[in-house]
Amino acid sequence: MLYSSDLLAIVGAGEQASLSPRRLCLFKTTTGLPLRELNFLTSILAVRMNKKRLVVVLLEKTFVYDLNTLVMLDTIDTVPNPKGLSAFSPSLEGCYLAVPASATKGSVLVYNVMDLQSHSEIDAHRSPLAAIALSSNGMYIATASEQGTLIRVHLVSEATKSYSFRRGTYPSTIYSLSFGPSTQLPDILIATSSSGSIHAFSLSLAINQRSKRSTSFLGSVLPDSVSDALDPAHHHVLQNAVSSGIRSYAVVRKIDKLEGTSSPSQFTSLRATVSVVTYNGYFQEYMLSINNKNESLWTMEREFNLFSITTG
Question: Which keywords belong to this entry (predicted)?
């Protein structure tokens, strides 16, 4: 869906001839009619849209279209990408697409879809990528490898600068990453994993504290491999939110800053609305509250089975 509009991009799963996985249908919900179809030689693995661009990800190629005219603007040759891994920023100022740049290590190609040129390549992990996310303003990119123990956040404009969050000690598959909505540094980064847990990282607080430490004497003598790891106190986990092994996707829908000090150097408590969809058909919505002492509380607001919903 294009934001909350009536435009849908639909790709079939192949059960019917009219629902080929090689066909993309742009569909208008208000009229109930298809607007346009695009056909490809191989299966479509991911579709991304914003107000200006439509991106279609195939196994070894990614196509960029003008959304309004559906004129093809560029074709990007990629490494084999069987999972259709990709991230796309809705911002037209920082309008970036991120796709894997290597099949053997965790490198990311960042491509500017407005200028139609490669922006940078980020060497994020030693193992191949499992998840990628761009912030809504296009300024930050988060990555996780197939190991799933570390999540790294990179400043897109400075491809070599990164911060690391440790999800856990044992390997786990990261299913999704999502930044909180923000025009600057996002407050929260959310991850879901095969362990069934939801992980929240207090991104703005952790990086601001890390910046302070780097200007101190201790920060100046610590090697980067040590000092770029952010304080585990900023990691807030909800255990057993989903059954172990069930694929899930989480999105930070809303951030509410609560009353606190006006000083930018001090932490303001916040509430984050987190929506989760699981592959076994459940929708969950949580409220994550983090107070000014960095204490957190997860509260389930609602849960229902999408398969049981009937329309009148």
Answer: Repeat, WD repeat
C-alpha 179/C-alpha 289 separation (Å) is 16
- Tokens for 276? 């989760």
Q: From residue 291, give the alpha-carbon distance in Å to each of 186, 212, 263, 288.
A: 17, 21, 16, 10
Q: What is the pTM of this model?
A: 0.85
Q: Which of 60, 36, 37, 62 is nearest to 47 (CA)?
A: 62
SS3 string of 38-63?
EECCCCCCEEEECCCEEEEECCCEEE
